[in-house]
Structure formats: C-alpha cells, structure tokens
Give the backbone structure.
Amino acid sequence: MKKVWKLFSVLIVMTVLTGMLGACSGKTGGSSKVSVGIVLPTKDEPRWVQDEQRFKDALADSDYTTEILFSQGSSAKEKENVETLLNKGIEVLIIAPHDGAAAGSAVEAAKKEGVTVIAYDRLITETDAVDYYVTFDSLAVGAAQGQYLIDNVKGTNVPLYLYAGASSDNNAFLFFEGAWKVLQPKIADGTFVIANSTEAEALKDKQELTRDELGKILGQVTTNWDPNEAKNKAQTHLTAAAANLKGDVAVLAPNDGTARSIADVFGTDSDISSFVVTGQDAEKASIQYIIDGKQSMTVFKDVRTLVADAIDMAIDILDDKKPETTGSYNNGKVDVKAKQTDVIVVDEENVKKELIDSEYYEASEFKGL
Ligand code: GAL
C-alpha cells in the first residue's frame, strides 16, 4: 500500500512539473502564445528576406516566442497578418508596412488590444497608433547616393536620370529628398542636366522641396520598388532621349533591385558610353554587380543592427522598461520616438572590408573578389 502511494505522489509531482514547464516556455500545445509578432512587407524583394533571416539568427536563443509573417505587397493581407498575431496574444508588434498610410488601420487594431507597436524601417503615417520607430538614417541614404554621383562624374552638362521608390513608402520620399538636397546645387551650376523628369526640371532651382513637390517628381520617376517597372521606365527614357542626353551619364537608382535592372538597360544602349549608377541594401546580387563593375555603389544598411534594435526595444517593453531612443520622426499626426542607425557607402574599393571582413557575407558567396 505504501509503495502504491509513493508511486502515485511521484506521478502527481511529475504532472505538476510538466504543466509548469509548458506554461513557462509558451511553446507547447497547439494554441501557442506568441509574445512578439513581426510583419514584413514582401518576400519578393531580397531586402526583406534578408531581414527575416537576420531576425531568425538573432532570435535563435531567445526565450521569447516570436512569429514572422509576410504581407506580399498587400495591405489587406497585412491587416490579416496583424489579426492572426493578435489572436495569438502578442504584446509587441514589429511591423514594416507595405503602404505606410494604409497600415494605419492594422496598427490601430493592435493598439486597441493594448499591444505596443514598433514601426520597423518604414514609418507608418497619419495615425497615433505607432509607439516607436527603428530606422536607418534615410535622408543620409539619399545624400550618399547623390554625393556619389557628384564625386564620380567628370565635366559639365552630364545627363542625370532620376528614379525613385514607391510613393506609398515614406522612405522613398526621404531617400529622394536627401539626394535632391545635394544634387540640386549641382543641377543649378550646370554640372548635371535632368534627363527624364519635367517635374524635376520645373523645380530645379529649389533646394528644399515640400512633400507635394517631392510627390510630383516621384509620380513621374517611381519604380514602385519593382525591378520590372524600373526596366520599362529606363527603356522608355532612353528611347525618348536626344543625343545630348546620352554619352557619359549619371543615374540615381533608389535601391539595388531597381539599380541592377536599370544598369542592364543602360549597359546595352550603344549610345551610352559610360554610366555611374547608385543602389541601396547591399543585396548579394548587387555586390556581385559591383565586383563585376556593372553597378557603381550601394548603400549598406547593416540589418543586424536594425534587428537588434527592434528586438532590444521589444524586450524592454515586455520587461516594463522604457526603450532607448535617439530622436523622433513626425508621421503627419504625431512625433514617433525613434532609434536611428547610420549607413555605409560601399563600392569596389571597400566592398571586401565592409561586407566580408565584417562577416555580413562570406567571400565564397561571390566570384572575383
Ligand atoms: C525601403 C527600404 C529599402 C528598400 C526598399 C524596397 O523602404 O528602406 O531598404 O529595400 O524599401 O523594398
């Protein structure tokens, strides 16, 4: 009888312990609770697949449960993703919106549930339902692209082809604004002539552009972040360009995906003798293009830092601590407290130092380094 009782108590203790462990890890059972939800805009752009991988690497040993969902370029899918995560009980939402303004209703739904919202890389605009913003210095990205063009062209009257990101993305405005501020004086002094935008041409004497003015130029030279759209636009522009807009030219391309397709078009036009073209994101395919001399530069945004900032912020919030911020961004409705990270210009001169020696990529991923 004693033995049976002993066995019975051991069983009870084991059951209680298993129950406790299950509750602590939050990973057991079908209806697992997620503490941090992460929503990224699309898998179609390598930039965001990069971010997903860096999140996974950073969270590999974390005690917190997280889930990453992609919105595939749809604000409706994005809202659905946020709702899915809310149903799993998230306390913090890290979200890079597909469309900064349209994402308002998704984050408002999150706020209603008491969730803290961190805008990741792209600001969510026109709503007070964003608590924090982790970002790179996007004006500096554009300024670096513009400055690179200035530093790498020779002579005067150099044709300047302008391209931009998607108008639904606040960053596209910041990148273009940063570039315009440094390029405009060089347009005014005759170093460059604008080759493909009547709206930019009409504003060429103004260094500080309003959001509306930027919007007009973006409306003409947007790529929508789509390499195909960029390719079609570049083809149309080169077909329409007169002889004085060919020869040695400069191209402001907003990111790597569009830079490669624009470079491919400019590279096959026999009337273009040389071109300098910018980029952004340090995508592997563009690093190879830089090594091969097909793309001039990229702006390296070390996603490891942005991911670490977002996770640290989320953990502070879960621990009831106040996250560290470095400034703020106005989103059209409120000033959103922000943590900002610097960017690095990379071209063939420093590609090895910045991307291989820093262990961002491995040398074996490239040919001809
Ligand atoms: C921006 C982002 C860039 C680039 C682009 C295209 O918002 O900051 O790094 O990837 O979107 O997705």
Observations:
- The CA atoms of residues 61 and 191 lie 53 Å apart.
